[in-house]
Amino acid sequence: MLVYFWGFLYSNYFRFWLKWILRLLTRKCELQRVFDGSGAGARRTLSIEHSLESSKNKVLRNAVHAEEAEVENCVRDVMKEKKIEQKDTGFKTNLHITLLQISGYKRLYFNVENLRKVPYDSDNEEHEEQLIELWNLLMPHENLKARITKQWCDIGFQGDDPKTDFRGMGLLGLVNLVYFSKHYTDEARQILSRSNHPKLGYSYAIVGINLTEMAYSLLKNGALKSHLYNMVSGLPQMEHFHQFYCYLVYEFDKFWFEEEPESIMHFNQYREKFHEKIKGLLLDYDVILTLQNTKKP
């Protein structure tokens, strides 16, 4: 209760006066001070995002909701409102990049969400081609005997027809699995092999779809902002979301075997423990979580 009360006082009273005093002392607005005090990356972008969202000025608040095409005009309007000379190219460039990152994160979530909402359709030729591609990438020396077959269990699906396993994450789950298998083929095959361990084995494809849900939820609640703002100087793309997913798959496999669960029946418990570990890493303002970072030189 005391923390909430202090937060209310700071947001509604003390913050205004603190900003006013600092402006008198430095002759710079809060946005200028943030840009001067920190380099490019999540720490700076998150600070600017918070400053704009907390502003009582409608022009500044609207800037965090700008679409990519509107960013340039928003930069001009913000500089006008804060009485910053348009010839200040350093401020203009930094604010432009920052607003692109903020806008890009929202757009990325929109695109990921739309892909998640697409149900797997066995009558859709493109969907079927991606599913067959997944098989061929993971099992290059074994041909599918039929479209509906128990062979799908060999790569970790639950039954004879994988389409039923994509219900929760839709096409996003399949796209993630294919991306990892295509761009990190050796790693994907190694992890699939490890997933068949007689004691510590798990269902590779099902766990992969589960990790899609984890990546999606972290994007949705904003936890991926630090990672993406550090990784991308501009607009985050779907490619960057897929790369983060690859990191989760690789790291979860390591985590699972290090923890040595008694059985797959404890999956949810260890899945949540892994989730908490990732959330903890993402609290670091300087974090970048990529698969490349996990490999030895």
From TrEMBL:
Molecular-function GO terms, alphabetical: GTPase activator activity
InterPro entries, A to Z: ELMO_dom (IPR006816), ELMO_domain-containing (IPR050868)
Domain ELMO: 126-282
Pfam families named among the record's database cross-references: ELMO_CED12
GO CC terms in record: membrane
Source taxon at top rank: Eukaryota
Coiled-coil blocks: none
Name by which UniProt lists this protein: ELMO domain containing 2
Species this protein is from: Athene cunicularia
Classification of source organism: Eukaryota, Metazoa, Chordata, Craniata, Vertebrata
